[in-house]
Design brief:
heterodimer, A: mainly alpha, Arc Repressor Mutant, subunit A, Tetracycline Repressor, domain 2, 2 domains, 78% helix, B: 74 residues, alpha+beta, Alpha-Beta Plaits
Chain lengths: 209, 74
C-alpha cells in the first residue's frame, strides 16, 4: 500500500478510536455522577470504570470541575436540542403544546440518566454556568410562542410560572412515575400513549378560553 | 500526548494547599509557563501543562528543586 494512503487511513482510525473513547468517557461520567454524586465523583473512579488511565482523562479535561462542566453543558444542550427540534414559535397553541409534550416526553424517556444529572446540576454550584445559555434559547422560542398565543387570544395572560406549571407539571409528574416504575402509594405504573395524550387533552382544556 | 497540536504534560504531585498553589503560580510565571492547572481535588494533585516549549524532565527537576514531589502521571 502507498505509505501516504496507509498513514492517512491510520490517522483516521486513530481519530475514530479517540472519538469512541471520549463518548465512552461521557457515558460513564453520567452514570457515575448519578450513582455517587458530585462529592463522591473522582477522576480515578471514572478512569477505572472506562478501563483507561487517569492520564488519558487529564488529556481531555483540566480537572474534575472542568469535566463535570463540559459534560453537563453537552447533556443540557443535547436534551434542549431534542426538545426544540422542529418547533416553530408560529405554531397554533394546541400544536405547539402537543409538540412540546411529544418531544419533552421522548427526550426524558430516552435519556433518564442525563435527566437525573441535569437535575443534580440544577441544584449545584455549576448551575449558573450551565443553564445561562439554555435559558436564553428557551426564551427565544417557547417564550415567544407563549407571548404570541396570548396576543392571538388563544390563552389568557398569566404569570410565566403559572403557565409552565399547568403546561408541563402533569407531564413531568407522569414521566417521574414512569421512571420510578410506581406512582402514588407505590402503585406500579407504566406511561402509555393513552395516558399521556389523555392527560395532554385535560391540560389543553384548562388553557382554552 | 497531544491536543490541538500542543503537548499535554501530566504529573502526580503534592501541590496540595493554597500556599503551594500560590508558590506554583509564581514559579510558572518565572518560567513563562502560561497554560497550566493543578487539580487539588484529586488525590494525586495532578499538574497539567499544555506547552510545546517545556520538557517533562525539566518540570520534574524544577519542582524537585523546590522540594515538591513530582513524577509522570501514567
Amino acid at each position: 500500500m502507498n505509505i501516504h494512503l496507509y498513514l492517512r487511513l491510520n490517522q483516521n482510525d486513530m481519530r475514530i478510536r479517540d472519538v469512541n473513547k471520549i463518548e465512552l468517557v461521557k457515558e460513564k461520567a453520567v452514570e457515575l455522577l448519578v450513582k455517587v454524586g458530585f462529592e463522591g465523583f473522582t477522576m480515578s473512579k471514572l478512569a477505572k470504570l472506562c478501563n483507561i488511565s487517569v492520564a488519558t482523562l487529564y488529556i481531555y479535561y483540566k480537572d474534575k470541575d472542568d469535566l463535570i462542566l463540559q459534560i453537563g453543558l453537552e447533556e443540557t444542550q443535547k436534551l434542549s436540542a431534542m426538545m426544540l427540534e422542529g418547533f416553530d414559535p408560529n405554531f397554533t397553541f394546541e400544536d405547539g403544546l402537543r409538540h412540546q409534550w411529544k418531544h419533552r416526553a421522548k427526550s426524558m424517556l430516552e435519556n433518564p440518566l442525563s435527566c437525573q444529572v441535569i437535575e443534580q446540576l440544577r441544584t449545584s454550584t455549576y448551575q449558573e454556568k450551565i443553564f445561562e445559555s439554555m435559558t436564553e434559547t428557551f426564551k427565544q422560542t417557547l417564550g415567544v410562542f407563549m407571548d404570541r398565543a396570548v396576543a392571538k387570544g388563544e390563552i389568557d395572560l398569566m404569570p410565566m410560572e403559572t403557565y409552565w406549571s399547568v403546561a408541563f407539571g402533569p407531564l413531568y409528574a407522569l414521566v417521574r412515575f414512569h421512571n420510578e416504575g410506581r406512582s402514588i402509594g407505590g402503585r406500579p405504573f407504566i406511561l402509555t400513549d393513552e395516558i399521556l395524550w389523555a392527560s395532554f387533552n385535560l391540560v389543553l382544556k384548562a388553557f382554552k378560553k | 500526548m497531544e491536543i490541538n497540536g500542543l503537548s499535554v504534560l501530566l504529573f502526580k504531585t503534592n501541590i496540595r494547599t493554597a500556599t503551594d498553589k500560590q508558590f506554583m503560580t509564581e514559579l510558572m510565571q518565572q518560567h513563562e509557563i502560561n497554560q497550566w492547572t493543578v487539580d487539588q481535588e484529586d488525590v494525586d494533585c495532578v499538574l497539567r501543562i499544555v506547552s510545546n516549549e517545556v520538557q517533562q524532565a525539566d518540570v520534574i527537576a524544577l519542582l524537585s528543586l523546590h522540594g515538591y514531589n513530582c513524577e509522570e502521571l501514567t
